[in-house]
Each structure stands twice: as C-alpha cells, then as structure tokens.
Automatic annotation (TrEMBL):
TM stretches of this protein: none
Region span, Disordered: 347-370
Listed InterPro entries: Asp_de-COase-like_dom_sf, MoPterin_dinucl-bd_dom, Mopterin_OxRdtase, Mopterin_OxRdtase_prok_CS, Prok_molybdopt-oxidoreductase
Source organism of this protein record: Arthrobacter cavernae
Gene Ontology MF terms in the entry: iron-sulfur cluster binding; metal ion binding; molybdopterin cofactor binding; NADH dehydrogenase activity
Family matches, as Pfam families: Molybdopterin, Molydop_binding
Protein name: Molybdopterin oxidoreductase family protein
PROSITE patterns recorded: MOLYBDOPTERIN_PROK_3
CDD domains: MopB_CT_Fdh-Nap-like
Keyword vocabulary terms for this entry: Iron, Iron-sulfur, Metal-binding
Stretches with biased composition (Gly residues): 349-358
Amino acid sequence: MPNGADTHCPYCALQCAMTLTPANQPGSAPAPAAAPASLAVPVLDVSGRDFPTNRGGLCRKGWTSASLLRHNGRVTEPMLKGSDGVHQPISWDQALMLITAAVKDTQKQYGMDAVGVFGGGGLTNEKAYLLGKFARLALRTSRIDYNGRFCMSSAAAAGNRAFGVDRGLPFPVQDLDSASVILMLGSNVAETMPPFVQHLQGARDAGGLIVVDPRRSATAAFTADGGGFHLQPTPGTDLALLLGISHVVVHEGLADTEYLRTRTSGYDALIRSLNAFWPERVQSITGVPATLIRETARRLAHGARTGGAYILSGRGVEQHVDGTDTATAAINLSLLLGLPGSARSGYGTLTGQGNGQGGREHGQKSDQLPGYRKITDPAARAHMAKVWNVDESLIPGPGLPAVQLLQSLGQPDGVRCLFVHGANVAVSAPDASAVVDGLRSLDFLVVCDFFMSETAVEADLVLPVTQWAEEEGTLTNLEGRVLRRRKALTPPPGVRSELWLMARLAELLDAPSTFSDDPETVFEELRLASAGGLADYSGIDYAMLDRGEAAYWPYPAGSQGTPRLFADGFAHADGRAVLVPVTPSKRARRSFANAAAPGSLALATGRLLEHYQSGTQTRRVAELAASQPEARLLIHPATAAARNIADGEFVAVSNERGEVVCRAELSNTVRTDTVFLPFHFPGQENANRLTEAATDPISGMPEFKTSRVWVRQAIPVALPTGAGLPLHVKEAS
Ligand SMILES: Nc1nc2c(c(=O)[nH]1)N[C@H]1C(S)=C(S)[C@@H](COP(=O)(O)OP(=O)(O)OC[C@H]3O[C@@H](n4cnc5c(=O)[nH]c(N)nc54)[C@H](O)[C@@H]3O)O[C@H]1N2
Ligand SMILES: Nc1nc2c(c(=O)[nH]1)N[C@H]1C(S)=C(S)[C@@H](COP(=O)(O)OP(=O)(O)OC[C@H]3O[C@@H](n4cnc5c(=O)[nH]c(N)nc54)[C@H](O)[C@@H]3O)O[C@H]1N2
Ligand code: SF4
Ligand SMILES: [Mo]
C-alpha cells in the first residue's frame, strides 16, 4: 500500500469514502504528541475522499477509526475460558478441534438445530454469504439469524409487500440534493450520519425540511431558521400521525390520482382505512397540532408537484411492535403523492449498519437464501442446490428470527451451541439481562470479535478475527451501491479471517460443497448464487469496483445496474405498487399509552454521534470515550423537578425487567412524558436492561423505541471511574 488504500469507513451504511495511508509518511497528519496509554501508536492515517455520499467529509467516528487497528486491547489469540472463568490463550488447532467436537457432540445429542449462528450487518457481503452457507451446509442447521433483525426488518418487510423489493434508498443519495421538501421520520442523521446532512441542505434552505421525532434531536433542530418544522409526537404514535397526513392528502384533493390509477393497486381499501383519522382526532392521539398535520400534507404535495419531495424513515418509526405497519403507512403516503419511481421524488429508509443492505440479501436471515431469495421457494432452493452442488434436501428450511433465536438459548429444543459473528447481543438485544442468562446457559458459545465485547466475555471460546482494513471484501451501502473494502494493513499474527475460519471448519465437519477463504473467489460464487434473484449481483466484479464504477443492484450480467428503481414499474408481477391498509393495533396502542402506570414515563432509546452501537469499538477510542464517557438520561427539567432530580445527579431508571443507573441530563429537547437513553453502554448503564423482547408480528423486529419506565433519584456509593464500570447505588432516602 505505498500510496494509501482507497476504502470506506468501518461503521455506518453511509460508507463514507476514505484513504488510509501509513502514519507519519510525508504528507500525513502528525501523530498525537501524547498518545493515550491505552492505545498503540496509530499505524494508519485517515483522510476523507470524494464520493457521492460524503463528498470528502467524515464524522468523528470515521476520523478516529484507524486507532483501533493496533489497540492494545485487541484479541490476538484464540481464548478459551477456564473453569475459573478466566480466558487463556490456546492455539488455532486446539480451537478448531474444540469447536468441531462441540458441534458434533451437541448435534448427536440434541439434533442439528441445537447449533445456532448469530451474524451481523457489519460483515462484508462475502462473509455474510459464506456464513449463511456455513450454517446450512457445514452445520446443517436452520438456526441462523442476525442483528439486522433489530435494525432493518420492518422497513424491509414493508418495502417487500408494497414494492416487491427492499432496497433502502431506491435512488442515489445525491438525488436528494435538489428536493424542495423532505419528511424525515424518526431519523437523526445529524448524529447518525453527519455527512448526510449536506443532502438535506437544499430542502432545508427551501423551507421544506420536516422532522418527526418525540425529541428535539440535532436533526430536528436543523429545521429551525430554514422555514421547515419539527413535529414532536408522543413516542410510538407515528402510525396515527401518518394516517392523519394521508387523510389530509386525500380529503384536500392533493393525491396524484393518475399515478394511483396507473401505478398502484388497493386504493379503495386504503381510502376506507383512512376515514377515521381526521387531523383533530390524530392530534388527540399524537399531540401534534392539526394545523401542522395539514401543513405537512400540503407542503409534501406542493413539493411533489414542483421541486421534488422525499419521505425518509429511520429507526425511530420502525423499531416498534407495529414498525412494519408504520413503515407501510409512510409508503402509502408516498404512493398517494406519487413519489416512488418518479424522476425527482421518492421514498426510502435509511439503512444503518456498514453492510446493513448487503447483509440482508445473501442468506444470514433465517428465512432467506442468497440474492434475496426465499428459503421456502422451491425454485430458489433448486437454484442454490445447483450453485452449491448439493442435493436440495440438504438445505434446511426456515429458522427462527433473532429475538426468538436468542430466547431459545439453552431451552429444551433450543440452541445449545452458538456461533456469534459481528454482534454484541449482551448489550444490544432487547431485554439484555435475559439474553445474558441465555448465553450463560449454553453448552458452548463461540464469539468471533476483535475485542472482548460484553458478549465475548460470556464465551467459552473467543476467536480473534481480522478488522476492516486488514481484509478485502465488498459492502453494499444505503443506496444499494456495491463498494470495495480494501486491505491496507497486515493483520497481527494470530488473527485469522472469518472466511478462513469457516473454510477450515467446513472441512473438519465434512461439509458438502466447497468453502473458499479467498474473498474474490467467494464473491464470484455469490455472483452466481444471486443471479436471477431480486438482489442480482451477477454483473458486478472486483475489477470494475476497483475502477470506481458505480454498481447499484439489481445488476444482472450484461446490464448497467440500476441506480434508480421503479422508474418503469414495481417488482410485483403486475408492475404495480400495493397500497396495504394499516391502522394502529390494540397491542401497539398498549405499548405507548399504558394508562395503568401512574408516574411512569416513556423511554425512547437511540444514538449519540460519538458512539457506534453497543460501543465495543468506539468506547475504546480515547477521543470518543473522553467526549461521551458514560450514559446520560435526557429528562425534561419539569419532569426532573417533580422527582427532585438535579442536572448531573444519578438516577435509577427501572421497570419490571431491570434497572439502569446513570446520570441525568436536564434538557428541554425531550417531552415531559418521555426520557431518552443511548444504548451504547454496558452493565448498569445498558438501556436494553429495560427494553422488552416484544416483536413486530410480521418482521420479528423488537420494540426498542418505547418502554415504560419509572425514574427516581439514586445516590451512588462509589463513583464511576470509566464508561460502563459497575456502579453501586443505594436508594435515595
Ligand atoms: N453515531 C452513530 N451513528 C450510527 C449508529 C450508531 O450506533 N451511532 N448506528 C447506525 C445504525 S445500525 C443505524 S440503524 C442508524 C440509526 O439511525 P437513526 O434512525 O437516525 O438513529 P436512532 O438514534 O436510533 O433513532 C432516531 C431517532 O428516533 C427518535 N425516536 C425515538 N422514538 C421515536 C418514536 O416513537 N417516533 C419517532 N418518530 N421517533 C422516535 C429518537 O429520538 C432518535 O432521535 O444509525 C447508524 N449510524
Ligand atoms: N435500545 C436499543 N437497542 C438497540 C438499538 C436501539 O436503537 N435501541 N438499535 C439496534 C440496531 S439498529 C442495531 S443495528 C443493533 C446493533 O447492535 P450490535 O449487533 O451489538 O452491533 P455492534 O455493537 O456493531 O456489534 C458488532 C460487534 O462485532 C464486532 N465486529 C465488527 N465487525 C466485525 C466483523 O467483521 N466480524 C466480527 N466477527 N466481528 C465484528 C464489533 O467489535 C462488536 O463487538 O443494536 C440494536 N439495539
Ligand atoms: S457517517 Fe458513518 S460512514 Fe461516514 S464517517 Fe461517520 S460512521 Fe463512518
Ligand atoms: Mo442498525
């Protein structure tokens, strides 16, 4: 890598382009004068690179990402937990032997499905594809799912039923630049994808940026001065809000009737379903003034007719027990206005993880085979049996979605031996304390990671794997664009790639079919596997990606790829989009309006700019940890005063599942009935001690965004000395 490697950020789905150069080379930034003791000297410098998603910009996480490559907390040898609970290094040969024995013993005693796999949306396409194949053919289990179930599954389910296909943004991100109106539903890009904000600038300056968030997030604050506005609904009421906006569109004659007639089906049933959601009624459900509900509808319709209008959704509206229906309501609104597939307007969901898009296409989902094929579809099974050169009967059927998979750990007929690749479920899964109990009840837990994550700590065996800049591969960003991740650094000795691991284990387990450990060879197989599927990559190869060609799927061999979907039709057989009538379910209503809980508050959870997900990585970056060392509960001053809580004081946040202890931050950015916690911190600061493992009935997505909690003052008996350290508290008297 003499002149640096052109690659992309290890974190989110914006996949900002960056160049990695050896540190302290001529032209590179100087090393920090006093490198923190916990860090090795950075070996690579990061610079932003021009690319449509980021235009040279990076956020703080991107800038500091290379400091983890040689962090001294890195796991560099396989680590086996002894009977004393302490992990000790062992050789790779021993590790492979132990795993093989554990898999064989477990399956002999309890059946094939007693071995499970939990994957991640950060894995490259190659790793995600091979993991699905490894589970089905080497482990012969149906029990594979991944953390994308926590992230994208409701938006994906809604997209599939409305459009017949799920690609987060069905258009390139720069299309947003010229929009005059953008409705942002529960997405806080100003913190979760900072360089993305430049694509909102045009709409914001035109007075057309509208943000829906119960909290005055950084993105909501960005609407100010531009003439746009912030809608602040009661958490969990977005579905009603969207029905209200749709009601206005229909009743004020703002709908695009020609588009509805020629490009959609289901109009009559949809109209009937909207009848009961007139703006004043919706105001009483959501707290959003009827005038603003009408204004939102009118601005969107005006934008659709003139400068271009977009509706974008994020986790705030999707991570609910009615997330699929809420995303569907957003799609219905966009269809009423004629946005999807039109030249200057559209609808999209903002995919979250680095490979959140590609990771949901190639087979680590319990119901899925590569190319976004259904595992129950006989034609899909026959196709994959041919590519893998196995008998179709060898491919297991559908398994269990993530939450149910985790609930089955250690249970009779459940999973007893689990492989985790790229997820930290001990922190990030709903009802995390129950998940940790599940992990502890396993006969054998194998975790692949670069660090001792909270999940790795629970493992019998931790396997050290290569980090992003130490391996080749591809990712698919939030636009459905396939990108090359490049190797810039030799991994530390002792560290192995996950492709290598799967290939060796497949051999030891006598798997049928071949398992290559070479990324490009695996990608060539993925091309064949995806050919003819919805997410068809067959026309894409490493050479064209290395030349910087823009490759948007579907990209069948011989085509030019598809930057914009839906221009000529939707992916259903009749080419039409389906309007699916949806209304708030009793179950969802219960989750946000629990009237039988006096004194309780709605807990919303989400993200801070500085930390990524469960924080395994960013809590180890000195600069980021210094800036956000601990969880803080955002609470409205009036709500705090009623509980005698002062700014910076410790509070206990509790419900029937558990308790979080952290400092309070008084802020009028949250509603008086709502508190907000980030989920990046472990132990007593872990927000997921409070979330419920209730899931959306269609997508299996958990309810992360609204839980009922009680907040009270707490007095610490020992001060924390660092992020995530256990705090001991006693009750305030
Ligand atoms: N800094 C940072 N960036 C990230 C990540 C990270 O961990 N840290 N993770 C990446 C990933 S995987 C993802 S999925 C994306 C997520 O990106 P976002 O969707 O932007 O992130 P969140 O903070 O989870 O949620 C967005 C907003 O939803 C609001 N919200 C909560 N409840 C409700 C509700 O009931 N209705 C509405 N309308 N809004 C609600 C929250 O207040 C929050 O401001 O970010 C990606 N980028
Ligand atoms: N309360 C609450 N909980 C949430 C959310 C929320 O908004 N609120 N959001 C949910 C969402 S959207 C998501 S996406 C999940 C994410 O939550 P997690 O699945 O826990 O995500 P990460 O923290 O990114 O965990 C990835 C782990 O894998 C490691 N890792 C990174 N890359 C690789 C790799 O290539 N291979 C291997 N083997 N390991 C790797 C990292 O070091 C880290 O330990 O959290 C969910 N949990
Ligand atoms: S916005 Fe996302 S991809 Fe871009 S630098 Fe930040 S974390 Fe990386
Ligand atoms: Mo996510």
